[in-house]
Amino acid sequence: MTITTEILAMIKKYERIIIHRHQRPDPDAIGSQCGLAEILRANFPEKEIYQVGGPVEGLDYLATMDEISDDLYTGALVIVTDTANAPRISDKRYELGAKLIKIDHHPNDDPYGDLLWVNPKASSCSEIIADFAFAEKLTVTENAARLLYGGIVGDTGRFLYPATTSHTLQVAAKLLEYGFDAAKLNRQIDQISLEVAKLSGYLYQNLQIDGNGAGYVILDQTILKKYGIKDSDTAALVPLPGTIETVLAWAVFVEQPEGYYRVRLRSKGPVINELAKRYHGGGHPLASGANAKDQAMCQEIYHEIQALCADYQEK
């Protein structure tokens, strides 16, 4: 029995299915979660299907969340998409369900759940959900295709990142056949506010880069308030240092209202997810996240990035 068949068999056993994703969602988190929900609603109209997890932080053009009571978890199947580590699951009530399925594309460092499908070679969790639907010959609606395509576009950086494979492009092409407005969706994903555009200028002007291509910038609360920006708005800034020819790996440190720093790590070559794990984070080899308690720890992380870049340049 294939993993897709196992997952479908478990789905068929439950009349109520509740789908979660990770905190601070990105297009792939929403795309995979809600794309799966749309597919299940289309194929099992008699079942109760919910998508939960709180605010979608500027991604309401993709989907919004359901608000449900605790009692609905009794006897329910819970599915978590695009979430490597259990502590990152948005809405801790996922533990209240009868069974738990994990579907993800990050390294499987935290193998939670009763049934797992983890494929780190996939470009995105949305690609995995599309593979599931196509493998099991499930009905895919136009909106489900839109959501999954949006997730793939988001996690591949519009097909720029190394995780993009020929299979990724085949899946994306198949999803386009469902007739949603892909040009509109791409504009929505790409759009930034004027405030974020102005902060982009600050980032480029204040980005520090060493001789081996290690870069960093700190966005503290003073800067965020000056530009009228909140943490969720800074996601659009993270890829920007990578557009600079001499930058090899970088960190964007964003101060949170509580005083600690959210660390977004990206790389064009040096593997950074092991570094992220040492600072209460994790992720992909070239795209990870972590946390730093203060600016001293931010500098500590940057020194490690410098060492990684220096080693990489010597090879």
From TrEMBL:
- Top-level taxon of origin: Bacteria
Entry's Gene3D superfamilies? 3.10.310.30, inorganic pyrophosphatase (n-terminal core) (3.90.1640.10)
- Ranges in coiled-coil conformation: none
Q: Where is the DDH domain?
A: 16-152
Tell me one Pfam family matched here.
Answer: DHH
Show where the DHHA1 domain sits.
228-310
InterPro entries for this protein: DDH_dom, DHH_sf, DHHA1_dom, Oligoribo/pAp-PDE_c-di-AMP_PDE
Query: PANTHER family given for it?
Result: BIFUNCTIONAL OLIGORIBONUCLEASE AND PAP PHOSPHATASE NRNA
Protein name stated in the entry: Bifunctional oligoribonuclease/PAP phosphatase NrnA
Q: Which organism does this sequence originate in?
A: Enterococcus pseudoavium
